Amino acid sequence: MKILLNIGLISCLLSFVYLNKKVEVVNFAQLQMQAESKTNDTLYILNFWATWCKPCVQEMPFFEEAATKFSSHKVKIIYVSLNSLKELPVVEKHIETKSIQNRVFLLNAGNPNDWIDKVDKAWGGSIPATIMYKGGKKVFFKEGEFTQEEINSVIADKNK
Questions:
Q1: From first to last of its 160 residues, what are the pLDDT tens digits of the chain?
Q2: Domain count of the chain?
Q3: In a domain, 28, yes or no
Q4: Does some domain include residue 52?
Q5: Which of 57, 59, 74, 160 has its CA 20 to 30 A from that of 102?
Q6: Domain containing 149: what range?
Q7: The dihedral of CA 122, 130, 37, 43: what is its sign?
Q8: Assigned domain for 11 exists
């Protein structure tokens, strides 16, 4: 009985630690693995943003609502913070304060000029920027912010 209680306690503690992990720091190769390498029929949406970008912060609730609206579909929304690594606590506080439910990465990839073209050659480097992958292939890219109607429409179209 004591062993079962200990196993249950350990499981609870591990799940608590996992659930409280707010932001995962990734390099560019790890980020690519999250969407480009997956050849399933899930629509992966990567939204590049930063806490200091007002349009980025303003559109986050639209992605959150879209995640709820499309929760019964194969859609995964991933926020990719472009804040610096030293700003990780600021990003985590933002995620907690805004009750962000989707997965959040902080991209620690060095000079953006080294990887922006790898995301999309049309990307000038402004944020917010959103890219979508399905079946391991890029199916959509937009530099600029969305309205709720626009993001819902694009997701519905690309998730057919």
A1: 444 334 444 434 333 333 455 899 999 999 988 877 778 899 999 999 999 999 999 999 999 999 999 999 999 999 999 999 999 999 999 999 999 999 999 999 989 989 999 999 999 999 999 999 999 899 999 999 999 999 999 999 998 8
A2: 1
A3: yes
A4: yes
A5: 160
A6: 23-158
A7: negative
A8: no
